[in-house]
TrEMBL record:
Keywords: 2Fe-2S, Cell membrane, Disulfide bond, Electron transport, Iron, Iron-sulfur, Membrane, Metal-binding, Oxidoreductase, Respiratory chain, Transmembrane, Transmembrane helix, Transport. InterPro entries: QcrA_N, Rieske_2Fe-2S, Rieske_2Fe-2S_sf, Rieske_Fe-S_prot. It is a multi-pass membrane protein. Iron-sulfur subunit of the cytochrome bc1 complex, an essential component of the respiratory electron transport chain required for ATP synthesis. The bc1 complex catalyzes the oxidation of menaquinol and the reduction of cytochrome c in the respiratory chain. The bc1 complex operates through a Q-cycle mechanism that couples electron transfer to generation of the proton gradient that drives ATP synthesis. The lineage of its organism: Bacteria, Bacillati, Actinomycetota, Actinomycetes, Pseudonocardiales. Its main location: membrane. GO terms for cellular component: plasma membrane. One of its GO terms (molecular function) is oxidoreductase activity, acting on paired donors, with incorporation or reduction of molecular oxygen. The keyword Nuclease does not apply. This is Cytochrome bc1 complex Rieske iron-sulfur subunit. It comes from the Bacteria.
Length: 382
């Protein structure tokens, strides 16, 4: 606003208090050395067909924003989002549309709201043409007179935009912004619409992974992913060379031939485990975590692939240094010291899966992880 060097002396506090908004607007311009060249009313003749048409166009955009926002909200909650295998052609088709539908509805809603605001500004807000001399105000802050005149100016702009008397536009804009806001709130909250304590001891709970046994004697094998969920390739200790690493997923005989269950086990985000075979010399240097001394099978160690920082896959294993690397933020974990973090932002060790070899010679999980995997967890103690 004013540099304080504008033409004429500043009005006194009493004079300021006595001024109405029009006078304050003029005073603001004068103090700032602003010359208003043109300040046309966009609709000098009120109530014309063109004005009403413009009002309807703006309303239409806001209603479209509301409609798309509502569609986003409905899709977010009710669209079939759970994986369906290719064998169920219909189910797979609708499932595969989940993410595109969310993207399109949210995108259309934001776009329509923006276009509505743009069209409104273009059609109804007076396009003032003014010239002002530049000033740096010599480092001084705003004075009372500056503050008052700018508030008056803003209020005047709002009134001249005629928004106050355009209830159709106001309501549709409120509806569009409200529904979009609802979707924005629902997006992060929706993932919590699940009881974390339901089925607490099963592999379906948040506290367990797919490695959790469904009954005490169940055998959960380590399997590799060949690209075909139906092709079961189990892992024997001799399959891995010393210093080698392989990613494995859980497999139970009860799921053999069940394409949906097999595909789900491979897709479930907390299932992947990094199976590492240390070189014999390195195996002698291992420091085990208290209470997990028997989680390994000889030189074979299995750690979750879910980084304890923010959950990226820790998919790199450096054989020479025995370090597990997370490419997201470069955390490094020492495979010789129970995958303890030794570099980067991660502060917790990777959870270790207890493994052994079954009577048939294949590697199996002895039980699920004994702690939640991945990043912060509200009941985590480590
Ligand atoms: S998610 Fe692994 S370092 Fe950040």
């Amino acid at each position: 606003m004013s540099s304080g060097n504008g033409p004429g002396p500043d009005p006194t506090e009493e004079e300021l208090a006595a001024m109405d908004r029009d006078e304050l607007v003029k005073l603001g311009g004068k103090l700032d050395g602003v010359e208003i060249v043109d300040y046309p009313d966009p609709w000098p003749v009120k109530g014309t067909k063109a004005e009403k048409r413009a009002e309807r166009v703006v309303t239409m955009w806001f209603l479209l924003a509301a409609l798309a926002g509502a569609a986003f909200f409905v899709a977010l909650i009710w669209w079939p989002w759970q994986y369906e295998p290719y064998t169920n052609a219909d189910g797979h088709f609708w499932y595969s549309l989940y993410t595109p539908v969310l993207g399109v509805t949210l995108g259309v809603s934001v776009l329509a709201l923006s276009v509505g605001i743009l069209v409104y500004s273009k059609k109804f807000v007076p396009q003032e043409l003014a010239v002002q001399q530049r000033t740096d105000n010599q480092g001084q802050g705003s004075r009372e007179v500056d503050r008052k005149t700018i508030v008056a100016h803003l209020a005047d702009s709002g009134e001249r935009s005629t928004i106050a008397r355009r209830s159709m536009i106001k309501r549709s804009a409120g509806l569009g912004a409200g529904v979009l806001g609802l979707g924005a709130v629902a997006l992060p909250v929706a993932s919590f619409i699940k009881n974390p304590w339901a089925e607490a001891d099963t592999k379906y709970s948040l506290a367990h992974t797919g490695w959790q046994k469904e009954f005490p004697d169940e055998v959960v094998y380590l399997r590799r992913h060949t690209g075909d969920p139906g092709e079961i390739s189990l892992v024997r200790p001799e399959d891995l060379e010393a210093g080698g690493m392989e990613t494995v997923w859980p497999f139970r005989e009860s799921e053999r031939g069940d394409h949906t269950a097999l595909a789900h086990a491979l897709k479930r985000s907390d299932n992947p485990v990094m199976l590492i075979r240390l070189r014999a010399d390195d195996g002698k240097k291992v420091i085990k975590r208290k209470g997990q001394e028997d989680f390994n099978y000889g030189d074979y160690y299995a750690y979750t692939k879910i980084c304890s920082h923010v959950g990226c896959p820790t998919s790199l294993y450096e054989q020479q240094t025995n370090r597990i690397l997370c490419p997201c933020h470069q955390s490094q974990f020492d495979a010789l010291t129970y995958a303890k973090p030794i570099f980067g932002p991660a502060t917790r060790a990777l959870a270790q899966l207890p493994i052994t070899v079954h009577t048939d010679g294949y590697l199996i999980a002895r039980h699920d992880f004994i702690e939640p995997i991945g990043p912060g967890y509200w009941e985590r103690k480590s």
